[in-house]
Amino acid sequence: MPHALTSIAKRIPLRWSVLRFLASSVSRTGQVGDGRERALLDYVTANTGPGDLDGVIEAIDRFAREKTFLMNVGDEKGLILDAAVRQAQPSTLLELGTYCGYSSLRTARAMPADARLICIEASPANAEIARAVQRHAGVADRVSVVAGMIGDNGVTVRRLTDEYGITAGSLDFVFIDHAKQAYLPDLRTILEKAWLHRGSVVVADNVKTPGAPDYLAYMREHEGGEWRTVEHDTHVEYQPMVKDLVLVSTYAGPPQ
Which residues lie closer than 8 Å to 45 by C-beta, 6 or more apart? Predict the structure, then answer.
């Protein structure tokens, strides 16, 4: 276990599943393979009716608090995401790191009715779970899930352009919640492709824990120039004792 995670474990009595989240969050594929994702889908379908978006969101929160930890944005930080989406009033949104679809449900609930969300998920197994959760919640007509990653030598980037029409200036909103070491490289790819426009909003989760230090340093370095960022002090999903940081950054355009 990395030294930083060991230090956290010594200071705070976290469950093993949370430590597993901290370790898996720095990987490219994240948490997958121990059955909790399939168990979540079964729980959601057994305890909510089709099309009950609010009920599905509440059921996922309940599962994560009472059954087993899930590495989604969670209910506390979800309010920050909700507010950012509502304020931006976006038409086209991109999510990097969908996991089981929780944040996509919150985003779909907050975004305008005619908006569309494209989600990128590195794990094909998790992508299938997310699609099933979205279908059950009744948002599959406005939300798409692409199995892949931005940093796969252009394969997913080409799909986003060819199949989903993401081109220069077309993205109004981006939510980043995947492998932490990929935050800044993937944002740089998005900037190189000029997919953002002046006023586009980028929200990044888990900037403190597990942490994305290069992304945080980049946003602070460019504050008042290319970016205007609000830093939200908060807590790791479903863990009120563990501090976290969410960044809500508004793009001001390329340097003149």
Answer: 136
Evaluate if residue 247 carries a pLDDT over 90. Answer: yes
Q: Which three-class secondary structure state does DSSP give residue 3?
A: helix
Catalytic residues: 177, 180, 205-206, 237
Per-residue pLDDT at 192 exceeds 90? yes
> Which tokens belong to 209?
């824990």
Stretch 108-131: mean pLDDT: 97
Confidence (pLDDT) at 26: 44
Thinking of the domain 3-251, which architecture would CATH place it in?
Answer: 3-Layer(aba) Sandwich (3.40)
Helix then strand count (H, E) for the chain reads: 10, 7
Count CB atoms within 10 A of the CB of residue 148: 18
Q: How far is CA 170 from CA 90, 196, 248, in A?
A: 10, 6, 19
| DSSP bridge pairs for 143 | 117
Phi-psi bin for 2: left (phi > 0), alpha (psi -120 to 50), beta?
beta
